[in-house]
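Appendix B, record 7
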Amino acid sequence: MTLPLLPPGGDLLMVLPAWIELFFRMLVPMVVGIMALIGVVLVLRTRADAFDAADRKPRGTWAGLLAGCSIFLIFPWIGWLMLGIPVIASLVITGIYWLDVRPQIKDLLANAQG
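Structure tokens (predicted):
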């Protein structure tokens, strides 16, 4: 994908859709990919029995899922070559970890310590 440039004497509205597509296809997945990498580090630093106590998949499963997601999200053109399915699945898996799994485990560990 080449960067859309403004043609000489052209209107900004001609290239705006291309910039919006570039933003959602490349930049958003890259930012979420960095969040997936941070999630891998946090998963590996969390006690393994916390995942069992929260009735979630084991720690190694979440670490592997987030590591795989980070590859497809940091390099989104790889996933878009496969019809975008890996990128979309990676966005969903990373969102599930950050919005569902991590808060539950964080609350569980906070209540266990105090």
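Remarks on this record: The chain has one domain: 29-113. The longest helix spans residues 12-45.
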